[in-house]
Design goal:
Radius of gyration: 15 Å
Strand content: 25-35%
Structural class: alpha+beta
Order of helices and strands: EHHEHHHEEEEEEEEEEH
Largest sheet: 7 strands, antiparallel
Distance between the termini: 27 Å
Strand order of the largest sheet: 1-3-2-12-11-8-9
């Protein structure tokens, strides 16, 4: 099973300079529920802009506004392999959400191309990247894209973006 880390733990790793040892390539970071994001956005005094990353800028609030208990899953390190994602405890990535199927999707790390890709594994509620449904063929994830598994939403971020966002959040 892939180690889950809270934003609080990511901030501590970043402050200690050991984040890249734990997350060498990228992470899938859980987004807070829509209502919490809406309330946080109302309290945010200014719009945040990250040049060249408009999608990431829209979802960066999940990291920088103090959602300390949101979870992150390191992805894309080590040996090339397919990892399972789902609600059942035997998955590599366990997502504890009732809208996530027991075996919902599969992630793969392709070290030669330095990419992470995902495909749906016949889930009930679907797998989506930025709202576009993913089929049973692997789709490559890009920095800042929103990954939805049923109702569970995540932002896929590379380690470079993650480090920058954690610094912006006062880590």
């Amino acid at each position: 099973m892939v180690q889950k880390l809270s934003i609080r733990e990511l901030r501590a790793l970043s402050a200690a300079g050991t984040l890249r040892q734990t997350i060498p390539f990228a992470a899938i970071v859980q987004q807070p529920p829509d209502e919490l994001r809406r309330l946080a956005a109302l309290q945010q005094p200014k719009t945040m802009v990250i040049p060249g990353k408009p999608q990431l800028a829209r979802h960066a609030l999940a990291l920088v506004l103090g959602f300390q208990d949101m979870l992150a899953f390191p992805v894309g390190a080590g040996v090339d392999r397919i990892e399972t994602v789902g609600r059942a405890p035997e998955n590599d990535f366990v997502i504890e959400d009732p809208s996530v199927s027991s075996r919902h999707a599969e992630l793969t790390w392709q070290s030669e191309l330095a990419v992470v890709a995902i495909r749906d594994a016949g889930s009930t509620n679907g797998t989506f990247i930025n709202g576009a449904q993913v089929s049973d063929q692997f789709a490559i994830l890009s920095d800042g894209e929103v990954l939805s598994l049923g109702d569970a939403a995540f932002v896929y971020v590379t380690i470079d973006s993650l480090e920058g966002l954690l610094r912006m959040g006062g880590a």
